[in-house]
Specification:
single chain; 573 residues; alpha+beta; Immunoglobulin-like; 3 domains; six-stranded antiparallel β-sheet; 13 helices; 27% strand
Length: 573
């Protein structure tokens, strides 16, 4: 068998461009056709595939599936590396090696019982621009807005060095000064500062400029759609939700993801990888914890313990700790779509615990870390960390340039791609390992519907009794989450009997509805000596059929969410 190590293009030590990422996925799919399938979810406007790698024995067979995606925001490149690293760990496990750091017995049943879907880069056009020009791109660098909405900044390389970073302009009304202690470091202006003062802009030009007013450099200034605001769940048009796009799923990338998810209701877990912060964000997006389904809350409590143990990250509510404005939820994001509309465990991980690494106190609610560490002392501390632990990659020199619109400017300054937006490359592999440990355990929560026994007893007059027991040996129930139980695709489990070769069923319907089968998980409120006991209904059902003659009896148990399992026995031989 081909060595997995020999196939790697080094994604644990660097960020791959689209050509390299495509080659990496194609190498795996070609080397391991027995358990790897590669397909394109969509083709971007610039002609790049949004790849999806499916890993599992018999990869076309439906069964509980775990989804992983990354790099929906173009500058957040380490999500794609982590997706590739987890895919590589899975390939090793399916090729006969250990499955990550899972115990052997857990790995054994996961190889047979769980499917994995990995989309390492949901914004291929934007990521390519970030890698080639280094400037910030939210998702994909495209703009089809109608009408004239005034002047705006267009990011581009104006000095011809192949990069588009920042520009600073001396201005008596400026809100920045240069640090007197750290060369090239820009600090927010204070009342004590005597100048010179600067205004800082993205490197680029001003579209629709009136020759006087310089527009605000909004993070979506020349990009219409933030892909992570373009999904159908609770979608809201602008201006209520910045970056929403002209309509839900207006972009080929989001449309491709939704179409795939709709065809695959067997996805029970959905982890979206972002940067930065070092935190997992869980539902609900628009309500406090008190409104979370009790069963779902128990699942997320377990995941919170794993997040701390394996990644060292806290888990926070999207509504109470990750809204930019209090009580104003984000709309149209992917993880919320996965949880609300698809009935999956929807989680976001903001990779790279930058605040902790720099030495800051990690604040709660978590959004305060992004809001509060913006003063001169905090910025100077970040610069010192960059110098000591990041090779001084972030803070560079300013070079004079004659801008075609603004006149004398200086270009350069900051390149936060490696250091803030993404971890130092030397730290990438440790982050990959930690996230792999977490994701594999998330996948281990899958329901596991089995036909635990299928037995035959001979009766009189050529009759036989076939008895079977069906049970859920997995953590989650057959409907996955309490909040998803009433979804149309959360249908009850059915048992179907098929007699062949002259064998006949005697007086019994061939298809029986078993209802839903609960899992063993979600019992965390009844596990202490205070009131120790198992709770909930039994996860087991017993069935029997009377058959006449000789032949093969096959029992199939299935529902839409968990797929199907079958067992057979010979009768009368």
């Amino acid at each position: 068998m081909t060595s997995i190590d020999s196939l790697s293009l080094g994604f644990r030590e660097q960020f791959l461009n689209h050509s390299q990422l495509s080659e990496q996925l194609q190498r795996w799919a070609q080397a391991f056709p027995q358990f790897a399938r590669l397909q394109s979810l969509a083709v971007s406007e610039e002609g790049r595939e949004v790849w999806l790698l499916t890993i599992g024995k018999e990869p076309e067979r439906k069964r509980p599936a775990a989804w992983l995606d990354g790099n929906i925001h173009a500058s957040e490149l380490c999500g794609s590396s982590v997706c590739l690293a987890i895919a590589e760990d899975l390939l090793r496990g399916f090729a006969g090696e250990a499955l990550g750091d899972l115990p052997a017995h857990v790995a054994s049943w996961m190889r047979a019982g769980v499917l994995f879907h990995i989309a390492p880069r949901l914004s291929p056009d934007g990521a390519e621009r970030v890698l080639s020009q280094r400037h910030f791109v939210r998702s994909n660098h495209r703009d089809h807005r109608l009408g004239n909405h005034g002047p705006y900044w267009r990011h581009q390389d104006v000095d011809g060095d192949g990069l588009s970073l920042l520009m600073r302009v001396k201005d008596a009304t400026g809100d920045f000064v240069q640090s007197r202690d750290v060369p090239n470091l820009m600090l927010p202006r204070t009342v004590e500062d005597e100048g010179p003062f600067y205004r800082v802009y993205p490197e680029g030009t001003i579209e629709r400029w009136d020759g006087f007013s310089v527009p605000r450099a909004h993070y979506l200034c020349d990009t219409q759609t933030d892909l992570n605001r373009n999904f159908p769940t609770d979608w809201r048009a602008e201006p209520e939700q910045a970056g929403a796009g002209p309509y839900p799923m207006s972009e080929p990338e989001s449309r491709g993801v939704v179409a795939f998810a709709a065809r695959n209701p067997n996805i029970f877990a959905w982890l979206s990888l972002h940067t930065f912060g070092g935190v997992y964000i869980r539902p609900l997006n628009d309500k406090p914890d008190s409104k979370l389904d009790p069963h779902d809350a128990a699942v997320f409590r377990l995941l919170e313990t794993w997040a701390k143990e394996f990644a060292g990250y806290p888990t926070v509510s999207g509504f109470t700790e990750f809204t930019y404005e209090p009580d104003k939820p984000l709309h149209g994001d992917l993880a919320n779509y996965a949880y609300v509309d698809r009935g999956a465990i929807g989680l976001v991980c903001e990779l790279w615990d930058f605040w902790k690494q720099v030495g800051f106190e990690v604040k709660r609610p978590f959004i305060k870390n992004y809001e509060d560490y913006c003063g001169p002392a905090a910025i100077t501390q970040i610069a010192a960390w960059d110098r000591d632990h990041n090779g001084g990659r972030m803070i560079g020199a300013w070079r004079p340039f004659e801008h075609p619109q603004l006149g004398a400017v200086e270009i350069g300054g900051y390149d936060p791609l490696v250091g803030v937006w993404n971890p130092p490359l030397s730290r990438l592999n440790e982050l990959c390992k930690a996230q792999s440990s977490f994701f594999l355990r998330l996948a281990a929560l899958a329901p596991r519907i089995v036909i635990s026994s299928l037995e035959l007893r001979t009766l009189d007059e050529g009759l036989s009794l076939v008895s079977a027991e069906v049970e859920n040996q997995g953590f989650l129930p057959s409907y996955f989450l309490g909040s998803a139980k009433q979804r149309s695709f959360s249908d009850p489990v059915r048992a179907s009997a098929l007699a062949s070769d002259g064998l006949l069923l005697e007086g019994h319907e061939s298809v029986r509805e078993l209802g839903h089968l609960p899992g063993w998980g979600g019992n965390d409120r009844s596990t202490t000596p205070v009131l120790l006991r198992s709770t909930g209904e039994s996860p087991r059902r017993k069935l029997s059929w009377v058959v006449r003659g000789k032949g093969e009896f096959t029992l199939t148990v299935e529902n839409t969410r968990t797929g199907k399992v079958s067992r057979s026995l010979r009768v009368g031989e």
